[in-house]
Amino acid sequence: MYSKTEIATLDNNDPLSHCRDLFHFPGTLDHPQIYMCANSLGLQLKSIPAAMQVELERWQKHGKQGWWEGDPSWFTTHEYLSRAMARIVGANAAEVVAMNTLTINIHLLLSSFYKPQGKKTKVLMERGAFSSDHHAIKSQLKFNNLDPDLHAIYIECDTDSNLISEKNIVQLIKDHHDEIALVFLGGVNYYTGQVLDMSLIAKTCQEYELPLGLDLAHAVGNINLELNKWGVDFAAWCTYKYLNSGPGGPGGIFVHEKHHDNIKPALTGWWGHEEATRFEMKADYIPAKGAAGWQVSTPQILNYIGLRENLKLLDQLNLDDIFNKRIKFNEVMDEMISSLQNKGKSIKLITPKESNARGAQCSITVGQDAKSVYEKLLAHNVICDWRSPNVIRLTPAPLYNSFSEVYQLYDILDQIIE
Ligand SMILES: *Cc1c(COP(=O)(O)O)cnc(C)c1O
């Protein structure tokens, strides 16, 4: 394992070290928790309560005029969010909008992009996809009067490693392209932390003219994304994990510009109507250009504030600093695990080791009952999570975790793992 001095040097040389102080840490002042759970809910930026207060006061002072008062007014709040999130996902502002929450957005996008026709009816997805993706796809199939058992093609993971191979995905696309209507994948797997080669998969989908949709819940704010360049057709994500927007924070969507003239929102509401004539209240629907056309309802302004504050912070940072720190975290975590293994401890990383195939999350398995290890970690003030049957997810977040915390984690794991 790295020495204490080496760890201190890593913290001293960290270009993001100033960000740590911008966040509230759960626990007490004397014993702040070692919070390694950005994969579930990111921490609160200290600037959020005051920023919320500004909006509450705007409402107090201006009532409905708040929609037009101030810069940005509530009416234009989404514009900044689109621009700032577009930078993070590698897109143009017109391709991105913040709205609703993730699973709802997946449904809205599927209703436009999943168009079973003739022999092409099937959806290619991972067997190990997040439960909500399964629910969304299955219900969309049923909604189209298709039997989910017959119209989903599953990508299986390796039974030993739990990982999936892009080669396998490419082969399935080649073998089944004439019956596939949509490919829908998670960019980063929630369980193993595996990052898929989205560029390669997008290229293959384009060869066979298949739409590709991505669930980027664990990717946004975590890994480098180039959705426009890769030619991904659509994507949706939540912002409460690596973008720290707060519990139930707004979702984000991406619709590639190549579709802005040919694919229309299928389930519509007035907020997706073109802005200039929205308030003419006509019954005919004219979609706003780009991703904004997928909006349905009045934006939940108060819920946008946590996201906005985080995006303002990210705007001041070099995204490469975040990615580089994550890679360094990975190295230290790997070193920690092999050092524990050398001491005879039964601990294993199931996340891929290659830096382009993983994000910040490290999924580990242990030889003993993982739930009890998880509970012992909690008792030692380490906040992480546990996924059935035996995976513990530990996520040092580049924005607020320190290398010293990983060092403390090492000592704790050394004590509790057999
Ligand atoms: C966290 C997560 C979700 C959560 O969806 P919500 O609709 O925001 O509850 C969905 N998909 C994946 C892959 C996730 O990791």
Give an overview in words:
The protein is of the alpha/beta class. The chain contains 13 helices and 13 strands. A seven-stranded mixed β-sheet has the order 2-8-7-6-5-3-4, sandwiched between helices. α3 packs across α10 (301-315) and α4 (102-113) packs parallel to α5. The protein is globular and about 70 Å long. Pyridoxal-5'-phosphate (PLP) binds next to α4 and α5.
Describe the structure concisely.
By secondary structure, the chain is of the alpha/beta class.
List the helices and strands and how they pair.
Elements: H1 4-12, E1 34-35, H2 48-62, H3 77-89, E2 96-99, H4 102-113, E3 122-126, H5 131-143, H6 148-151, E4 152-155, H7 166-176, E5 180-186, H8 198-207, E6 212-215, H9 227-230, E7 234-237, E8 251-255, H10 301-315, H11 319-342, E9 347-349, E10 362-366, H12 370-379, E11 382-383, E12 385-387, E13 391-394, H13 403-416
Parallel strand pairs: 1-11, 3-4, 3-5, 5-6, 6-7
Antiparallel strand pairs: 2-8, 7-8, 9-10, 10-13, 12-13
